[in-house]
Amino acid sequence: MRRVREILRYRFEQGLGHKSIAVRVGTAPSTVRETLRRAAVAGLSWPLGDDVSDTVLEAALYKAAGTKIGHRRAPEPDWAQVHRELKRKHMTLQILWDEYIGLHPDGYRYNRYCDLYRGWALKLPVTMRQDHAAGDKLFVDYAGDTVTLVVDRLSGKTRQAHLFVAVMGASSLSYAHAR
User: Fold this and answer.
1) Distances in Å between the alpha carbon of 27 and those of 2, 20, 22?
2) Phi and psi at residue 40, in whole multiples of 5°?
3) pLDDT band for position 65 (50/70/90)?
C-alpha cells in the first residue's frame, strides 16, 4: 500500500504524469494508470485521512478484484472431475456431456461443452520431456480391448487376441503383435 500512497501523492501533490510516476515508484505506467482509475472509482481524494489505514485503502481499491465481469449462463461442470472421468476406459466427452445435459437440461450444447473443456485442459501443466539413450528403454503394453483375428479366411474362423505394442524410447520405433 506504500506504493499506492506514493502514486496518489505524486499525482495530486506534484501533478506528475503516468510515466514519471512509474519511474519514481518503480512500476509500469499501466499499473499507475490502473491504480489511479481504481482510486477515482473508489472516490478517494488526496490527502488521505488519518482514518484510512492500509487495510481500508486496500479494501476500497481492490474490493472487486477476483470477481468475474461476465457470467456464464449455464451451470458449469466440474472440469477436474470430467478430466478424471475421461481417463477411464471407454469414456468419451459425448458420454459425459449426455450425463451433464441430463442433470442440467438448459446447460451447454455439446460443441460449447467440448470447447470449454479443451480451454480448461490447456491450462493444465505440460508433461516433462524425457531423453532416452539409444537401446536403453523399451516401453511395452497391451493396447485396449481384444481384437478379432481371422485365422482362416476360407472357413471364416476367427478368434479374439490381445494386441501387444512395444516402442523404443529413443527412436520411437514401434512394434505390434496380436497374441
Assistant:
1) 13, 10, 5
2) -65, -45
3) low
